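Problem: given the chain below (141 residues), write out its structure.
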Amino acid sequence: MRIGELSECTGTPRRLLRYYEEQGLLVADRSPNGYRDYDERCVDRVLQIRGLLESGLSTRIIKQILPCLGGRLIHVTGASDETIATLERERDRMRQRIECLTRSQEAISGYLDAVLRHRRPAAGRAAGTIAEPSYDLAATA
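Solution.
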């Protein structure tokens, strides 16, 4: 398939597909006229790359681990000590980010719960007849 088709199938801009190729994350054959020609498996590969990027991994790290990730199968051979150490650091960093995001989500949920529980009619607020209540979010967490 050509780059436009791969872009459409994956929702990935052509510019990013070319970048993935530059970084060695994606391989395309070239037709006689110079157009890129991607294998059907590239659809899954691009989605995999995007998922890894969204999780916070750099293209350098993704390039190291892609050979070990064969679609749905994980090949456990060929991972160097350096790759393993890098992935352990990244896993720990992700765990910290997840914990931080979870705390933020809980704080936002607590705030929304408090606001929605004590919502008043718009007329009361506009007239200034009702004082704004405040709530201790730490007590609700």
